Task: structure prediction
Amino acid sequence: MEYLKADLKQKQKIFAEDGSHVSIIRILMSDGTSANVIYRIMRWFAIHNLAIIAYLFQWLNKLLNGCVIGIGADFDKGFVIMHPVGIVINSKVKGGQNITLESGVVIGDEKGKSPHFGENIFIGAGAKVIGQLVVENNVKIGANAVLTKDAPMGATMLGIPAKPYQKNMNKDV
Result:
């Protein structure tokens, strides 16, 4: 319950950034909240060695929200799913606090090795994070980026393959 409260508080914080009034009704009824709740219930059953029940909740998330999150995927407090449709997360993924996902995000493994996320991470719509890599703290991964290598602290990763954004990277010489 503690983790779910932190998730909802983080979502409230994200909504309040645009200056709009944020009510608990808006947060609870927003796209992605049910996926968060089901994920946290699934993790509780997985942690308590009730995998068969955890798999039922995984299936329910797929059915109701169009996302697949492996029962071993472990995110700390402040995990927020903004739009769940198309999200796929491998069971071996580990993540720190305050991770936000948009729609269509795929976080997968490569040859049995999965990504590890620090804290305060934003992953944009359609982004892919694949393989054994580390995403350090305060990283933003842009929409449709494909990250296959480590992301340094504070970076904004863009492109295919994703690289740190530099202000003048596309300037003609």
